[in-house]
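Render this sequence as a predicted structure.
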Amino acid sequence: MKTLEKKTLADYEALPEGSPYQLVEGELIMSPAPGFEHFGSSFNLVLRLADAVYRAGRGRVIYAPVDLYLDEENVYQPDIMVILRGSKAKITRKGVYGPPDVVVEILSPSTAYYDLTQKKDVYERSGVREYWLVDPLRRTFEVYLNTEEGFKLISKAKGKGVVRSEVLSLELELEEVFEGIEP
């Protein structure tokens, strides 16, 4: 049986610019264009985060596709990243190096497995302070805080309700996150 050779940062950087790939634990994973539910949720969140973070002078809100370099085998394009002033993450021309304060992944059928497993584990060990998982089809939103024991679910809502971010000291109404998106 032939095993697949692990890919590295050098392999990823050899791809043409704009290629729809992420490097997940040494495997190149293609990320097809998202559907409207995904796009709409992302757009609504970026608008709210822009007010709470960027316009308030607290940091930057970065949305896909921007590369996030975590190590030699993991380069992602999270849907949204929040980088607060004084963060470990550094913004460069090529992308972001190091763990953002908040990473948001909006689940799509083609990438949900990676977002819920391998990428979540890498975000945790890399030092991402908060990880948000948004599922526009199920209308769920989960917030995980990185603690000494690893990611801990600190806020969750489905359909309606509010989720809270400790890192951003922010509350988000699910109805606003999913506004304009048909169930």
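Summary. Residues 33-177 form a domain with the tt1808, chain A fold (CATH 3.90.1570.10). DSSP finds five helices and 14 strands in the chain.
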